[in-house]
Amino acid sequence: MAPKHPPRAGRGGRDLEVNPIFTREPLTVPRYRLPAGEMEPSTAYQVVHDELMLDGNARLNLATFVSTWAEPEARMLMAECEAKNMIDKDEYPRTAELELRCVRMLARLWNAGDPHHAVGCSTTGSSEAAMLGGLALKRRWRERRRAAGEPADRPNLVMGVNVQICWEKFANYFEVEPRYVPMEGDRYHLGAREAVELCDENTIGVVAVLGSTFDGSYEPVADIAAALDDLQARTGLDVPIHVDGASGAMIAPFLDPDLLWDFRLPRVASINTSGHKYGLVMPGVGWALWRDEEALPDDLVFHVNYLGGDMPTFALNFSRPGAQVVAQYYNFLRLGFDGYRRVQQTCRDVATRLAAEIDGLYPYYRLTGGGDLPVFAFRVREDFDGFTVYDVSAALRESGWLVPAYSFPENRTDLDVLRVVVRNGFGHDLAELFMDDLRRTTLRLRSQKQPHRDPRQASGFAHGAEPKKVQARKV
Questions:
Q1: What is the pTM of this model?
Q2: In the predicted model, what is the mean pLDDT of residues 437-461?
């Protein structure tokens, strides 16, 4: 009997003709609806595998902050734990214990007063962790206002316009007014004076970013804390800080130990980070920690009993894999403090070297040098009009390199830049290959008489550097 094939899709659909194994009859695979019947596992695998070959090479993706390399042993542990649900702490008590150990390790790394009793949890990533930090700020502010008999219906959050898009989502989803401090001149992130000027009795907190996605620079957390201390002394307003350390919270403790940004500053109420960025875990896992139990209102916490003890949980998500938490613990165990310091220092060395070499290649100049996060931004010189950063981004893509080009937000929309993120696995050897391709690309583009691409032709993978609208308001 002749094999039955599903009918072709109607107008607007495109079926896929495949013949993954030469001795098999060609097969029609619908793209946008379920096939009518089953197919061999090897055939299904080959169809999916072949299409994914058209994806970019993750190791050459200089746009993403997310880890693209892991040791075989970490991958094995993740595979062994892929069926474990992180929320089932009673069923997977050892995985829950590893999560708790990671929280305490991070609490010690970030100089919490009592790391053994630290309050924190794992999340799906730093975006969820940031939203949890924002929720705690809002709830604490609301409780204080109600206790004082004051209205609590107009909360606002102060941050730089350079914050990651998750903060815009937080403000939208949880009905908080976002107060963005625009960029000015050579200040590409939040400043202490500018932050304080936007604070009032309805401010639930200030977000300070330890590593801007726009240019890799640290925001001055200690200066912001000092300015808020002064504000409280003058007005009585007590405004806490949440540190978005998505990347920098796993860089600064190892490379900048004297930098004050963490729980050593009494005004810092909470910190988030990405385990799957410079925590060196494959995606996705994040971490949220609070200074103490007072900083995390108990009515936001759900308590789960496991091993006869209490395990507090606070998350927007429910079911999620435990594999990444296990991989985080593996990395902490495997590398230790010195191992993380060595990995992050290598990334910074590569970034600062690349930034310096690009700065010496006409017609580019660097905005930042990779000395904070191992991330830097560079642009085409203002007196050169033969090509744009968007031409460069498109041309580098022909060689497999994914380098985002984007415009800065208000008030520096005149800046169009390229950004390079150096991660573990992008060493000096790959950096040399990148520079070779950039030199060849630049030489070819300089033969153009005029630019071919502008922001409208940007590829759209800015990875956190999306523009935000600053609302005009009276201060």
A1: 0.89
A2: 82
